[in-house]
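Researcher: Going back to the complex we discussed earlier. I've cleaned up the inputs and rechecked each line, so this should be the final set. Can you rerun the prediction on the complete assembly and write out the structure?
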Amino acid sequence: MYIGERVEGRNNRLVVAGAGTYVDDVRPEGCLVLAILRSPHPHARIRRIDVTAAEGRDDVELVLTGESLLAAGIAIPPSGSYANFTPRMTVKHPLAVGKVRYVGEPVAAVVAHDLVGARAALDALMVDYEVLPSVGNALLALEPGAPRVEDEWPDNVMVEYPFEKGDPAAVLGATEPSRIRRGTLVCNRIASTPLEGRGLVADYDPHRRYLTCWASTQSPHILRTLLAGALDLPDSSIRVIQPNVGGAFGGKIPMFPEDIVTAHAAIVLKRPVKWIEQRHEYLPAGGHSRDVRCDYEVAFAADGRITALTTELIADIGAQSTFLGWLMAIVSAGCIPGSYKVDDVRVRLRCVVSNRGPWQAYRGYGKEVSAFFLERILDEVADAVGRPRDEVRERNFLTPDVFPYEQPSGWITDSGDYSGTLAKVKDLIGWEGFAARKAAARAGGRRLGIGIGHELTPEGSSRPDSLLSGTDSATVKMSPHGDVTVLTGVTSPGTGNETGIAQIVADCLGASLDRVRVVQGDTELCPHGNGNYSSRSLTFGGSSAHLAALVVHDKIRRVGASMLDVAPGEVRLDGHRVIAPSGAEVGFGAVAATIYRSPHARHMEGVEPGLEVTRTFKMDNVHHQPEKDGRYNQYPTWSFSTAACIVEVDEETGVVRIEKFALVHDSGMVVNPLLAEAQLHGAITQGIGASLYEEIRYDDAGLPQNLTLREYTLPGMRESVDIVLGHQSTPSPFTMMGMKGVGESGISAPAPAIASAIEDALSDLGVRLTEVPFTPARVWAAIQEAR
Amino acid sequence: MIDIELTLNGRPRRLAVDPRESLVDALRERARLTGAHVGCRTASCGACTVELDGNTVKSCCVLAAEADGRAVRTVENGAEPGELDDVQVAFAEAQGMQCGYCTPGMVVSVRNLLDRIADPDDDEITRGLAGNLCRCTGYVNILKAVRLVRDRRLGRV
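Model: Rerun complete. Updated structure for the full complex:
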């Protein structure tokens, strides 16, 4: 068995040599370089763009503007439909037409012989802007008479998504005031920031009318379909190849305006064109997440049981782009109250456009926002009733017997044992006995605190009427020598799912792992698939590969048994051999040779020839027909984790140091613990970054304040903490082998756990933290306020 | 364009470079050594780390012209394709990476660290890698990888 083994990532030895091929390493002969001129203004009308000087430069091959793309018929009309809400949409332009709506919005593009020349040509472009009044955040955008980001909308609200269960107003009205808390919580804006930026190389062959794109993307097939739509080409005229990807985290789910511009330039010039995003472009314009405010009202019983909860969410989704990130806010709303049983709930979300940059998917996909809000509210309730924070969570958790459980949003949670991960993480962190440690430290002048945070991570997003609709495909084929190739529609941004899928297929076939090769990320080689997002690569990709491998397995079994002169039911497949009860065996190579070389011979009687099988998998507990069965569910598997941490707070400076961090996750059956742990380490580190160090800041006019990694500070090794992991397995009843997704687990729980620990360290002062990240300035200010 | 002469991974090399060009671009575009990666161009992330005269530098913030007459060592280090040194093997075994974009810079920093300090403790390892960011996998396995290669060199494992 390979499943459950700690198998090293298959690309490790390639990439550690520096021999990986990332998109910037792709160099077709004669490749030109494209660079983008971006808006310096949050909001401005474009009066005129003078391209004469740029076009006159010797090394410039092409200059494109919004008007020239429009003249070429390129614009992205609204598409897709949404259950439960109706967003206002706009026609999107890859290069701004008429006006710019955020700093960093693409305005024009130049194609030159190299990057130095392209950047010099950008300086030669002259844009005449009329600067307009701007709205630098959602609250300003909601003010009566605020400047409108989209001229044709009546206001700046893109979508409103309310839902209710029970009668929270009645419960709140009947609750005595001491059992009610109201407040505001804020999750500030962050950016996924993979170390490799976005990028695309496009090469057009006018003879074959065929466009080849190498893209740092998560979803080659989706990018192909979207590009074909944007450029009015047949899908079959485009090949998208995903080379090595240098991290993605949702930030490379297609499609981006620059993809369209680069591909169009290659078609116009009939030469290869490369666009590689630079960090100063990414930070304001590559897409952000979070930036949600929550005004809440919670009623509770004396024992800390929550009796009613209302939340008003305002998501600042920035200006709209081709990105689909704004849907993260829907997920934030839909995951309230998540792991907690509250019978009377109202949630109202407003997605508000502003002159900030657009949102783009990022790990957590909105679930981290609801986790932060819910856990902060749970802590506040615990403090209000004077009960321990763990006990109040226990009091409110959904219990394992209620699943499948319909959330107030209508989504259906598959399974869970939340008390289990809480109990385990308390052991790992040393919950019992910490009070004595804290007191001893305090006596010595140090402030230690302990906190917990729980997260719910629905995965495998399956949206109706979209290319992210919740299926994936795989081909398993065995060659005449008995070697196995798996082609998948899911892709890896470097996370290692190719290793896990190889383990699944090898086990299913009884094959040797080293004779199973996995090929991903090429629309001409691989079956149609949605790629990588929502922690779906094993649940969907692994399951479809498993289905295909089962068919190959069956054929090898039947032919091998015939070759051994026994019944198919008597043999077993192991170690790349078919083995009879007597111990007689025949290798897969010999069986495969028989299937290919002797299709008309005795062993192939009644057996379909060939050893190449493609299967597509969808999950049974996705429900998209509410008119038929009253159910709507887009998330088939619901992983969860509980984190606990110990922090030290420097009262004088507000600096927080994490002494120990523990997380117990439950993602069902784990295929490769080594890679799952590596994922969790990474997710937790990102979660800690977003809790203490990372924040995309804007001023009130919408000018971004972080243009380099010197202002947007990612955690480095000095900020690294001792991470202790624990596992629990509540297998999903709906997936193959009980797998759930792991990719997003661990990013949501750190912020509430750290907040809880900071407050504990300052418990005698009664400090409340309501806004993440907890920078030294915010913690210090909270201490001063409490004093 | 100007000509520079340098010792690149132990061998003399002449490159014609743009005077405005950074060392990382010259290595990647002119010398076709693509192991050093560009992540920020502000000397923040360390994906472009190489050795210049025995010191680690962020090659995105060094002009190619500055390498004239000096020795540059990259992650490739003149190795045959498919050959890995002990630092690289330890990173692979410890799963000290996911996407691998930062890894070549990490490897260069670890080689340099172990050249200077044969038996670094965790604090010294942390300082030695403080200039290299990893966004995928955190630093737990990276620390394990460095301890592993250190202990192997010292015959402890």
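Model: Worth noting: The longest strand of chain A covers residues 637-649.
Researcher: Good, that matches what I expected from the previous run.
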